[in-house]
Design a protein that fits this description.
By secondary structure, this protein is an all-beta fold. Helix content is 0%, strand content 70%.
Length: 338
């Protein structure tokens, strides 16, 4: 239930003040994935049609059997969010925000979460993060620092990760992400290192995955023009544990992603005499189309997967065409073994 009382004055524009109380609000009506109950007390101060302030003196919620509480103040100017001063507590975890979002950006958002289990069922570990704002809406400056330890959720876990990222006023970006002990189900994925530098419109990046079921190295360059994210893969290799490396050939394929879908240029991977080539691929909300061609693949290279005492020999040539549309997934496979 939501109730309110106060006054509204239309004599000189819109002005007024309202006390608003909410009790026993079903949070699943706001978001079906967040079942629970919400209680709050707030004061709405209306200065004009485009300027108003909400002071929240009490917020208490039980969401997914986890208790939350908080207080805060939110201000709008010229019909735009202008300032936030808030604090939310869940167990020993606390999120605070004190930011200005008007003509100048300023302030910080901090998360201190030594007990992630108090935030969501099944979530474990600890995490802290800090976001610092500067500049202005046209040329923002944002700095993010975060680290976590012994984080797990369901089948996924990581021993620790560190993230440092920065956007400067001239659209210069820099970022570094490292993670150790990454696990997905029963698969040990190992360690991740990711570096990014340049500008939003023109940057380079490198990703490495090591000490797990597969080692990966990707080096890319690209940019974001406001509508399309493009990434050209300059160098890449993939080495499954116990196998030889597959290396990207010199085509330097480009990946282009928009809100509507994406496409990836044709490219080939090489391992000794064998090759795996992927045709130009396209996808959107309702369609995926691609083709894969395998030439001169030595079956003996799969020996590490076989039990002791077993062996395979011969070579395979194959091509696979895939199409997924409104009628479902369709495929066509041609397999030739010698």
């Amino acid at each position: 239930h939501i109730t309110g009382s106060g006054r509204i004055d239309y004599s000189e524009g819109l002005q007024g003040q309202l006390m608003i109380n909410g009790t026993d609000i079903d949070t699943s009506m706001i978001n079906a994935g967040l079942p629970g109950q919400l209680v709050f007390d707030a004061n709405l101060l209306i200065e004009s049609m485009t300027a108003f302030v909400i002071d929240i003196s009490t917020v208490k919620a039980t969401i997914a059997d986890k208790d939350l509480s908080g207080v805060g103040r939110v201000q709008w100017l010229d019909a735009k969010l202008a300032a936030i001063d808030a604090s939310v507590i869940a167990g020993t975890n606390q999120l605070t925000a004190e930011v200005q979002l008007n003509k100048q950006l300023a302030g910080q958002i901090k998360l201190d979460a030594p007990e992630l289990a108090a935030l969501w069922p099944g979530l474990q570990g600890s995490m802290d993060a800090e976001v610092t704002l500067g500049g202005n809406p046209d040329q923002p400056e944002i700095k993010l620092i975060s680290k976590a330890r012994s984080v797990s959720y369901g089948l996924y876990s990581v021993d620790r990760f560190n993230l440092n990222a920065e956007l400067q006023r001239n659209n210069t970006i820099a970022g570094e992400f490292t993670a150790t002990g990454l696990v997905s189900g029963k698969q040990q994925l190992g360690n991740v290192d990711f570096d990014l530098s340049g500008t939003v419109a023109d940057h380079v990046s490198m990703l490495t995955l090591s000490d797990g079921v597969v080692d990966v190295n990707l080096q890319a360059s690209g940019g974001w023009d406001g509508k399309t994210l493009s990434q050209r893969f300059d160098r890449a290799w993939v080495r499954p544990d116990g196998f030889d490396s597959w290396r990207l050939q010199q085509q330097k394929p480009e990946l282009r992603i928009t809100a509507a879908g994406g496409q990836l240029d044709a490219h080939c991977w090489k391992q000794r005499a064998a090759s795996i080539c992927v045709d130009a691929s396209h996808w959107d909300e309702s369609m995926l189309q691609t083709a894969i061609i395998i030439d001169d693949f030595a079956i003996a290279s799969l020996q590490p997967l076989l039990p002791e005492g077993y062996s395979l020999d011969g070579k395979v040539d194959a091509d696979l065409k895939l199409l997924h549309d409104s009628t479902g997934l369709q495929g066509e496979l041609h397999w030739r073994q010698s």
